[in-house]
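User: For my dataset I need records formatted as: sequence, then structure tokens, nothing else. Please produce one.
Assistant:
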Amino acid sequence: MEDDEELYISKEEHDEIIARGELMLQANNEQYFDVHEFEVLIDYYIENQERDKLFKIVEIASKQHPFSSDIKIQRSKMLLETKDIRKALELLLSVREFEKDNHEVESMLGFCYLELEQYQKAEQYFQNAMNVCENDMNIAYFIATYLINFEQFEWAIKYLEDAYSFDNENPFVIYDLAYCYEKNEQLEKSAEFYKKFIDIDPYSDNAWYNLGIIQNRLELYDEAISSFDYAIAINETNTAAYFNKANTYANWGKYEKAIELYEEFLSFEKDSVITLYYIGECYEKLENYSQAKHYYSATLTLDPVYSEAWHGLGVVAFYEHNYTEAAQLVERAIELDCDNAEFWFSFGNINKALPDCEHKALYCYKRATEIDPLDAEFWLNYAELLKQTDNTENAAKALEYAYSILDEDDAELDYVLSAYYYELGNKKRSIELFNKARGLDLEMATAFFSNCELLEEDKNMYTTILTR
């Protein structure tokens, strides 16, 4: 390779090369350029994001200089972009025969194998690239950005953390780390890095907004509100901040304030279907059913197939004891979205309230548990109705299965299952579950006593366990 001094050209020379290149492309009449002149043209079209001209120049350069490693690398980039992975791989491997220590070639070989889903090979070449340029933040970041585009967030974190260890004040690395931690559900780390970015750029409304989203998900509602306020103060046209500030108040249980902010958001986007629906939800939570119905209906006026609004109307009808109407409305929601567990659960509650529909309710509850088997509430209602309509043994089997698959401990489920085993005469398993549930939540013990009748001789034993 020539050194930098030899490669230096004046502005006049640079502009003359660009002018010649432009004329060639306009006239569609191929002219000769040396490798360095082609590199000037390639850099120019990359910088100006003129993709079609870039591709044409690379094609011409490849024909005129078929053995140039630099041109082969540029052509490989083009082939990668157009997903001609095998051809890109072939070119890069031919370059690698002569340039063993080219970090760009190693990185791009990694990208090719990533595209081919040969992840071990991809990682091998990424590590080669890192080894060629030790402690180089740019190489690590270059690899990470490609992994982000490929939605390999956990993998990208590894290289972003390397980049951060080389330069812990680079705003691009810090922001991308925050983003990848968020995508990887490492919310505390994500918030930490959004804060680091804000320390560098306190006037980034996007960073404040993203921090608010994370804080809302972490149930740090007061902090989330402050973050959204900063985002709005910096950029009052950041309408998403208004919307998510309202969401935060709704999640916080402050429904009146949420409604106020949703209404404010509607001044920006008056036909926002989801906003009308959320206002209806807030009114439903406030037990203002007439307003809830008004907003659910307004949602359906704009979008007649918005299944959640049909479900909302059905739930309100259920609360108002209009069970037949509720069944019709929720059934419409299920027609529109038959894989929504919440819809089936509501349909189960409604059928349970209708005369002679217990078996239909059982089917609905069972369907809800099949769609979302990790929701303890679905299992508890299914088991309760099984006990009422079938027998306690089958109810216990259902909860025992739920107990085996749930991600987290659930005190209510433990207490109810303990009660079922007591009724079945299996005191050992009952006491085992009762002890476990007691350690999780003492107040939930009412779930045990409301699901079984203790014999007089056993009352003292269970009370002692509870109070010790």
